[in-house]
């Protein structure tokens, strides 16, 4: 994983994302998901990079019929350390969505 991460870190897409993160974040700030779109976020709750990280995500899903924010202690790359928990919670979430349809 480390070799792949270092290899891919400076590819053109990642560089573009980094260079444009602030204008892209600002452009998306007032966008919302459609109410009937199922949305689940898995995040680390104490991000120091962006103030109110968890609150921002809660706001994004508050009007969604099936919106959920789940937090896990860990680093930004939760999928590296919490993959089992993410998979289990995703399956549960999808079952809840199916039952409501």
What average pLDDT do the residues reach? 88
Report the C-alpha radius of gyration, rounded.
Answer: 16 Å
Number of strands: 2
Describe the main β-sheet briefly: 2 strands, parallel
Kindly describe this structure.
Strand 1, helix 4 and strand 2 (67-71) form a beta-alpha-beta unit. The protein is mainly alpha-helical. The protein has helices spanning 2-8, 12-19, 21-28, 53-61, 78-81, 83-100; strands at residues 39-43, 67-71.
Question: In a nutshell, what does this entry contain?
Answer:
The chain has helices spanning 2-8, 12-19, 21-28, 53-61, 78-81, 83-100, and strands spanning 39-43, 67-71.
Topology summary:
Layout: H1 2-8, H2 12-19, H3 21-28, E1 39-43, H4 53-61, E2 67-71, H5 78-81, H6 83-100
Features:
mainly alpha; 101 residues; 53% helix; two-stranded parallel ribbon
């Amino acid at each position: 994983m480390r070799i792949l991460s270092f290899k891919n870190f400076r590819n053109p897409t990642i560089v573009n994302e980094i260079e444009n993160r602030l204008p892209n974040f600002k452009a998306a700030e007032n966008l919302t998901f459609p109410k009937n779109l199922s949305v689940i976020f898995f995040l680390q709750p104490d991000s120091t990079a962006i103030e109110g990280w968890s609150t921002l995500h809660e706001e994004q899903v508050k009007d969604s019929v099936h919106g959920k924010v789940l937090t896990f202690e860990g680093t930004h790359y939760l999928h590296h350390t919490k993959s089992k928990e993410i998979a289990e919670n995703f399956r549960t979430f999808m079952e809840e969505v199916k039952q409501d349809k």
